[in-house]
């Protein structure tokens, strides 16, 4: 019995050491960067997979893990529903002075989105962005990916947002899939 207790204590010590080591490794491990001359002309968001893919022509440049609206299943219908829209839109603006580390504005709502909300007697909402982390919360880093926490936007880490922002022009097509 004594050997089992000793083994259990020793194992627990290893686990208690290993968990923080793995988390720190994940947090600080560098990720591949886009080539400096990359030009993103199409973005595809796969909501169910929590991934955003960026393309130049037909070439997939990179896939980013993302966070979505706090109620991510289904297309955005009305303001405040916490859903991320679904459909084909454009990047309509770039804001380097956002309350979230930079953002790319998405052309939501479309005419279809407005009509759907109107039938429900409500506003479709708007102000949907691809953005970084809130100012003052940058230290969250990659751990933000474990939760869907936005009001309907698509969130990245700040270094990822910097990369996307630099390589994406206004007018870029964005397709948001279920």
Task: Walk me through this protein's architecture.
This protein is an alpha+beta fold and about 180 residues long. The protein has two domains: about 1-30; about 40-175, L,D-transpeptidase catalytic domain-like, CATH 2.40.440. Helix content is about 25%, strand content about 25%. The protein is built from three helices and eight strands. The protein has an eight-stranded mixed beta sheet with strand order 3-2-1-8-4-5-6-7, with helices on one face. A hairpin with a 7-residue loop joins strand 4 and strand 5. The radius of gyration is 20 Å and the shape is globular. It starts with a helix and ends with a strand. The model has no long low-confidence stretch (mean pLDDT about 90).
Task: Name some characteristics of this structure.
178 residues, L,D-transpeptidase catalytic domain-like, 3 helices, 8-stranded mixed sheet, alpha+beta, 2 domains
Summarize the structure.
The protein is built from three helices and eight strands. The protein is an alpha+beta fold.
Q: Number of helical runs?
A: 3
- How do the strands line up in the largest sheet? 3-2-1-8-4-5-6-7
Q: Biggest sheet: strands, sense, closure? A: 8 strands, mixed
Number of domains: 2
Regarding quaternary structure, what we see is single chain
For this structure, what is the CATH homologous superfamily of the largest domain? L,D-transpeptidase catalytic domain-like
H/E element sequence: HEEEEEHEEHE
Count all strands and give the number: 8
Please state the CA-atom Rg, rounded to the nearest Å.
20 Å
Q: Could you say which structural class the secondary elements and strand pairing correspond to?
A: alpha+beta
CATH class division of the largest domain: Mainly Beta
> What would you say the CATH architecture of the largest domain is?
Beta Barrel
